[in-house]
Design brief:
Monomer. Residues 286-440 form the Glycoside hydrolase family 2 catalytic domain. Residues 50-183 form the Glycosyl hydrolases family 2 sugar binding domain. Residues 1-17 form the signal peptide. The protein is mostly beta strands and 917 residues long. The protein has five domains: 2-18 and 184-280, Immunoglobulins (Immunoglobulin-like); 21-182, Jelly Rolls; 300-521, Glycosidases (TIM Barrel); 540-639, Sandwich (Immunoglobulin-like); 660-915, Beta-galactosidase, Chain A, domain 5, CATH 2.70.98. Helix content is 10%, strand content 37%. The strands form 15 sheets. Strands 51-52-53-54-63-60-59-56-57 form a nine-stranded antiparallel sheet, covered by helices on one side. Strands 3, 4, 6, 9, 10, 11 and 13 form a seven-stranded antiparallel sheet that branches. Strand 27, helix 3 (320-332) and strand 28 (337-340) form a beta-alpha-beta unit. The radius of gyration is 33 Å and the shape is elongated.
């Protein structure tokens, strides 16, 4: 082996090189298609010749039948599709090797060129396959391609692995089809193993190696600059190259450095016969026994999600743009890993993971059943690894899913993969790893039977509608982050998989509750858990704190990056004021400060924020952090003033005369300047509320929600110019109305909730039909649950009414209905009726705005809400996952424990002021 001068290689490349030529027969992706002739045997538009866009899933083109993978086989129609397409090739291809390449066909594919079989029928949907059709091609006239496709395979093991699963089942030529022309002496493919220390090995697969002399390898930057050039004699059809690059820039998910390797085979005269270029990265993967997973000698935790290739309009057919969009959304959630569930994705998705920076678990297909038989399994595994081997993002292989592995293939992964990456069995304790699925929180105590295994659940916190994912993650991740043998985990699943049904006027269908499991909606709409995950998995974490008058500007901070110093990030501190309730919603930013901190990965430190002289006059301190690529890491807002201090500034002071009071046997009728309020004389609840004769439909409250309380006594009296209506309950709980003539109505509440209560506070009726929206100062804009409190920020928010059922209907986010936290004030905007404002003079109060509808089949995400429509609460309940009740998801998910002897005064308190002006 010897170093070759760069100018010699460049001269050879320019003058003599022959590169692979590509001609697409189909389009390149879901949005760039070509029409082929098509005949479908059954279902929509069957029994007649038509045309179809290729690539595509034929159901999404209006053919065949829709199947979800859990439907019994006997209920399905195994429709077939016959494709025809005529094409010409360039005349100069006459003496070249011509190959037809199929990126993916569902599921059995018989290919003919000019009436003759191109090769054996291919079985298996998610794998690239190809045929040498040199002898079948005519270069002087038109050629005829025929592809006969069976949606369900004749091989039962293939159908069980791919067609009997928890996802939509489609049919057709769903990925691109193209021709490749090479010289008869050529490089078929390469397999690269590039280590972080610069060690570079490659297996170069050469056709007709005896007719060429040597191999040149040039390592290039992505901009084409040469890093090194090497030369080696060709030994055999598989020639192993071993070279070394000094001080390479390594690949990791935070700095995904990539290179090109340009392979050239030369004849004895030094003439380049054929070239092959491959992108790769230098990185080293280790699974260390009873320790963890290391990338480039750095122990990592995977903050990951499972992902199917899916789009409502296109089904399994995708595009480079859609892949990049998905990867960017994951990175925006501060994820660093993705699992390919339960099949290998399009090449452009893996390319995006390589270049943007996501760790990948790549998977041989299976779902809870014995996987492919030995013969077809070996063939498909060869195709999988041959196609995906060089992606630096792939760090592990998965042999099937949830008991679907073929154990006879375990050693084949190592044999076929030049990098010898470890194999895992998702949902199993296998080899060095434990990837058990859907653990209860208590499992994280690590007192089970796999104490020494590297632990990372390849599926956990199963989403459904608005449940799972963010709900429970804070508790889980606290334990997982602090467990040295935990290598992270993968949430189920990235997106709601609602397909546009072409047989139902493009109605979105999730097959009931089988497919609305996503963090984002079907068109990548961001749901509430998206922001919770972004917050919890942010690589910058601040220690929990409240800002008080004693605040000295110091925030305890932790760098949870694995490779990045925080001095590479941008951190901006802003002091913010928010407009008043009667003003147009906006904010003003006072002092702004750019802060730099030198904090190494996985270290803790202190961030010093400069305090303006008048800092206590601001409403909030905001920190905005962006990474080295200018992408937002997260935004944090801390209220500077508590609710009592802020609302004291906002509530109008009154010097109005006494309200007028009229009594009946059962009612107290109170008349103010522009307002009439009728109270129930026995229990103090509002019966009727009129503003200038127009109904404000707030009524039947306050009513305690945590347990039934019996009225002990009720009285009313004047205190100076205020009317006081006081109701006392057994156990000395009480509430007190304080009514001014100017329309400001105070409500003081003191009570003891039931122990182990789901929620605690008071509620009112306000019919949903009268509400158009709300504006508030507090945490938002998304709703919260007891176990999903992160991902919202303190600020001034406004949203219009919607009736979205997360993942099922509406798909308008943020949802309007539900719990909202840390409310300072809120304006309820009325329809055909005046609205009202309420000021909260207590800390940490939740506003419950109407009752979200449960989905049709909510599983364990079904929620119980307080009675009534609008509630003010000291505590709220948690959300479950698809399969597990909320109580299985950790401390934040269990009901409240209340011990009156441990609370000052033995009671909870809340102070509200209603403004009906």
């Amino acid at each position: 082996m010897k170093l070759i001068k760069l100018f010699i290689l460049l001269f050879s490349t320019v003058v003599f090189s022959q590169k692979t030529e590509t001609q697409y027969l189909s389009g390149t992706d879901a949005t760039n298609t070509v029409e082929w002739d098509f005949f479908c045997s059954d279902g929509m538009n069957s029994g007649k010749w038509s045309t179809i866009a290729v690539p595509s899933c034929w159901e999404q083109q209006g053919f065949g039948n829709y199947n979800y993978g859990t439907n019994p086989f006997e209920e399905r129609k195994n429709e077939t599709g016959l494709y025809r397409y005529n094409f010409k090739v360039p005349k100069n291809w006459k003496n070249k090797e011509i190959t037809i390449v199929f990126e993916g066909v569902m599921t059995d594919a018989e290919v003919k060129i000019n009436g003759k079989l191109a090769g054996p029928i291919h079985q298996g949907a998610f794998y690239q396959f190809k045929y040498d059709i040199t002898k079948l091609i005519k270069t002087d006239t038109e050629n005829k391609l025929e592809v006969f496709v069976k949606k369900h395979s004749d091989n039962r093991s293939v159908s069980l692995a791919e067609r009997k699963a928890d996802f939509w089942v489609f049919g057709g030529v769903f990925r691109s089809v193209f021709l490749e022309a090479k010289p008869q002496i050529n490089i078929n493919r390469v397999a690269i193993d590039a280590k972080a220390n610069g060690s570079f090995q490659a297996d170069v697969y050469i056709k007709n190696p005896k007719k060429v002399s040597s191999l040149q390898i040039e390592i290039q930057s992505l901009t084409g600059e040469s890093e090194a050039v090497f030369h080696q004699d060709i030994i055999s059809e598989i020639t192993r190259v071993s070279v070394e690059l000094k001080n390479p820039k390594t690949w990791n998910p935070e700095t995904p450095n990539l290179y090109h390797a340009l392979f050239s085979i030369l004849d004895k005269n030094g003439k380049v016969v054929h070239q092959y270029k491959e992108r790769f990265g230098f990185r080293t993967i280790e699974v260390r026994e009873s320790d963890g997973i290391y990338v480039n000698n750095v122990k990592i935790k995977m903050q990951g999600v499972n992902r199917h290739t899916f789009h409502p309009k296109y089904g399994r057919t995708s595009s480079k743009e859609l892949s990049i969009e998905a990867v960017n959304l994951m990175k925006e959630m501060n994820m660093n890993a993705v699992r390919m569930s339960h099949y290998s994705p399009d090449k452009h998705f893996l390319n995006a993971c390589d270049s943007i920076g996501l760790i990948v678990l790549d998977e041989l297909t299976a779902w809870q059943k014995p996987s492919y038989d030995d013969v077809v399994g070996r063939k498909l595994l060869e195709e999988l690894i041959a196609d995906d081997v060089n992606h630096p993002s792939i760090i592990l292989w998965s042999n099937g899913n949830e008991g679907g592995e073929n154990n006879n293939l375990n050693d084949d992964f190592t044999q076929l993969d030049i990098q010898k990456r470890k194999v895992i069995h998702p949902w199993q304790d296998y080899d060095l790893t434990n990837t058990i699925h859907y653990i209860n929180y208590n499992y994280l105590a690590n007192d089970g039977f796999s104490k020494r295994k590297v632990f990372f659940p390849t599926e956990f916190l199963h989403g459904l509608y608005d449940g799972g994912h963010g709900a429970g993650l804070d508790d889980y991740w606290f334990r997982m982050w602090n467990d040295p043998l935990c290598a992270g985990g993968f949430l189920w699943v990235f997106a709601d998989e609602a397909v546009e049904r072409t047989d139902r006027n493009n109605e979105l269908d999730t097959d009931g509750n089988h497919a609305p499991d996503g963090i984002v909606g079907p068109y990548n709409e961001k749901e509430g858990s998206y922001f919770t995950i972004k917050d919890i998995w942010a690589p910058i974490q601040f220690e929990k704190r409240y800002i008080t008058p004693e605040f000295n500007g110091i925030l305890n901070i932790e760098n949870r990056y694995f490779y990045t110093n925080l001095n590479q990030c941008s951190i901006i501190a802003e002091w913010v004021n928010f407009s008043k309730p009667d003003e147009q919603a906006n904010e003003t930013i006072g002092k702004t400060e750019k802060i730099s901190i030198n904090l190494a990965p996985t270290n803790k430190g202190q961030l010093q924020v400069e305090l303006p002289k008048n800092w206590q006059q601001f409403d909030a301190l905001r920190i905005v952090a962006t990474n080295q690529y200018g992408k937002n890491i997260n935004t944090w807002n801390w209220p500077v003033k508590n609710a009592v201090t802020k609302t004291d500034e906002l509530i109008p002071q009154s010097s109005a005369p006494k309200p007028r009071l009229e009594e009946t046997a059962s009612e107290l009728n109170v008349t103010l300047e522009n307002l009439n309020i009728t109270f129930n004389k026995q229990n103090g609840t509002i019966i009727k509320l009129l503003k200038k004769g127009v109904l404000i439909p707030l009524s039947n409250g306050p009513v305690f929600v945590s347990k039934n309380k019996k009225v002990k006594a009720s009285k009313h009296y004047f205190e100076n110019n205020k009317l006081i209506i006081e109701v006392t309950f057994e156990n000395n709980d009480y509430f007190k109305w304080k009514i001014d003539n100017n329309g400001m109505v105070g409500l003081d509440i003191t009570y003891e909730p039931s122990n182990n209560c789901l929620f605690a506070g008071v509620t009112f009726d306000f019919p949903e039909k009268y509400i158009t929206g709300m504006k508030w100062l507090g945490n938002g804009p998304y709703r919260v649950y007891k176990n999903r409190m992160k991902g919202v920020n303190f600020g001034l928010w406004e949203k219009a009414y919607n009736n979205s059922i997360t993942g099922e209907s509406g798909y308008l986010y943020p949802e309007f209905k539900g719990y909202h936290s840390n409310i300072y004030w809120a304006e309820i905007q009325g329809k055909e009726t005046p609205g009202f404002k309420v000021y909260v003079q207590s800390n940490d109060i939740f506003l419950r705005m109407l009752t979200p509808e449960n989905a049709t089949d909510p599983g364990e995400t079904k929620m119980e809400y307080p009675s009534g429509d609008i509630s003010f609460l000291n505590g709220i309940n948690a959300m479950g996952t698809k399969f597990k009740d909320a109580s299985a998801s950790g401390p934040q998910s269990i009901p409240y424990y209340f011990n009156s002897t441990k609370i000052h005064g033995g009671k909870l308190q809340m102070n509200l002021v209603f403004d009906f002006n």
